[in-house]
Amino acid sequence: MADQKNQPPKQSQINIELDEAVAQGIYSNLAIINHSVSEFVIDFVTIMPGIPKSKVKSRIILTPQHAKRFLKALNDNVKRFENAHGEIKDYEQPPIPLNFGPTGEA
Fold first, then answer.
1. Cα angle: 23, vertex 69, 79; to 5 degrees
2. 2-to-41, 69, 93 alpha-carbon distances in Å
3. What is the DSSP string of 10-28?
4. pLDDT tens digits, residue range 44-88?
5. What's the domain of life for this entry (predicted)?
6. pLDDT, the chain, mean
């Protein structure tokens, strides 16, 4: 028993599957983020020039804790990308008027 106390705890592994349809991914050039007390909702949209109507292609719902972890992970990855490839230029774009239905709250 004493030997087990000195050993680091074993980490469990998670087996994550990725089917072909999901592996193809969905292109998005707009993310709309809303939140309530209990969740963050991120809608990914593809807007095409000259086409006045678009649809939400994917929706991700996160707890506030997972949203904060996601923000940190994305920030870390952007920093690593910029260290390897140079600064990502953030070009100013005019605001897009959105007609996104009623504002909801969960």
1. 80
2. 48, 36, 63
3. PPP-------HHHHT----
4. 999 998 898 999 999 999 999 999 999 999 999 999 999 999 999
5. Bacteria
6. 87
The pLDDT value given to residue 4: 62
Per-residue tokens: 94? 């005019």
Residue with tokens 């707009």: 30
- Residue where the block lists tokens 């994550």: 16
Q: Tokens 């969960």 identify what position?
A: 106
Ranges of each domain in the chain: 25-85
Supply angle C-alpha 72, 20, 65, rounded to 5: 20
Tallying the residues shown for the chain, one arrives at: 106
The Cα 71–Cα 33 span in angstroms is 13
Would you state the structure tokens that stand for residue 40, as one six-digit string?
A: 């963050």
